[in-house]
Each structure stands twice: as structure tokens, then as C-alpha cells.
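Page 42, continued from yesterday. The earlier attempt failed because a stray header line got pasted into the input along with the sequence. Redoing it now with the clean sequence only.
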Amino acid sequence: MNAKSLIGRLTQQEDINFLFSNRIPRRFVTRFMGWWSRIEHPWVCKGSIALWRLFSDLDLSEAKTTRFKSMHDCFTRELKPGARPIDPSPAHLVSPCDGLVGACGPIGRGTVLQAKGSPYSLAELLTDADLAKHYEGGLYITIRLTSSMYHRFHAPADLRVEQVNYISGDAWNVNPVALKRVDRLFCKNERAVIRCRLAAGSLLTLVPVAAILVASIRLRFLDVLLHLRYHGPNLIPCDAPLQRGEEMGWFEHGSTIIVLAPPGFGLGEGVFEGARVKMGQALLRQAP
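This time it went through. C-alpha cells are written below.
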């Protein structure tokens, strides 16, 4: 059995997976990883990427370049032009990122699901009860990015970003094992609530949620890096117009984005729990 197969078998054991990805000093390890990943030395970079390949199915064939200054440079890589076609239909909201659909469905009584049988309060996630009420009867989709995926996220439609609410927090892993074991995990982790106004006037909210090794979120329309040591202001007013598919920002490694749509939208074709989606494909469709 090769090293990658052995690692894969070990990480499939839930107790071992949870122990090594959560029962450690999460914030310290996350800050250390942030420092280590930015070291610009060819031996450190190549060695780190080689080790990363042992733990994942890293594929750089779509990357704009395969020459990287650091592991962080590889994590936040851009794609070749045309690698992600953008669905052009104005009736569709496209996926903001690559990822796996962890949970999706209607929003009722102010709650959504973290995992099967694990509800959490939308008002607690957003820290804004009024904004949460806006999505009653709407839809939510949770998209999880694995470590090897493309880590940049993009505008789901032509829109204007009105506000960012940065919420500092913990750095629990966001894999399925942790989601089953840690109650209200998304409400505990570091996150940014990005409130957007669609061209038709309705609100769309994206919530990038950070995780262990991933506690930094970069937004192109802000001149600050949102991370565990950022002290505010927490509510950041914005007036940033973005076109469908335009880059919004990126995670330092990979994590989760929760998409909240108001009433009047349905799930796109092929969007269901466990589905793999790519940035630019139809994620939600406007009801006729």
C-alpha cells in the first residue's frame, strides 16, 4: 500500500479524522500555516506542494501557471482563460465557486441545515435578524471547497455589494465529520456576510466561512485582509458593482460558501446534496 492510500484510509476513520483536524490548537496551527505557506523559497514551495499532493487529488492542469513562488501562491492560483464558462441566462444565478454541495433546500422558520438532522439559526449565522427574515421561504445552498480545488469565488450575477459584515470566530474543520459532531459549526467559525443587491432589486447574500488552516478571506473590493487578527470595523459599507462571473475574492486555502437566495428561485438542474459544481454553472433558476 502506498503512502497516499494509507493516508486516505486513516482519514476515513471518523475518530482519527476528527482528532487530528480539530482536537489541536486550531487558531495557532492556522496562523502558523498562514506564515509557512507564504515562504518564498523553491525547496519549501516544492516540498510543501509535494506533501499536499499526498493528502489530496491536486490537479494543476487548469491553472494559469504551474510555476509558483510559494505554497500560498499555488493555493490561490488563477485558472486559464475560458476554463470556467459562465452560464449567460439572466434567469440563472451561477455558482460562485467550485465545490461540493453539502446541503441545500428551502429556508423555513429561520433555520437551515448544517448536515442531516443538524439545523442552525440563520439569524445567528448572519448576526442580523432582519436580514435573516428577508430569506424566509427562499433557498440556501452550502458549497464546500476541498483543499485541492480552485479557491477563488465570483459574482453569481450582475450585482452590487452593499455591505460586508466580518465576524471573527473559531477555526473548526468544515468537513462532513466535523459537521456531524460540532453543533452550529458555521455560526462559530470566522466568516464574512456579503450582502448584495441584484439588478432586479432583490437581495442575495453570500457567506464565506473560514476553517482550520483557512482563516483568511480576501475580497477584491476591500483594501483589508479579513483574518483572525482583524479588529474591525466589523460592518464595512460597500458600493461595489460586479458583473456575472467577475472575481469577488478568495480563501487562503479552501472552505465553504453559503448562498442565500430570496423567494422566487429554484435549484438549478443537477444541483443536489453531494453534487459537484463548478464556478459559472447554473446554480439557481428564477421561477417562471
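Notes: Residues 92-286 form a domain with the Glucose Permease (Domain IIA) fold (CATH 2.70.70).
Reminder to self: strip header lines before submitting.
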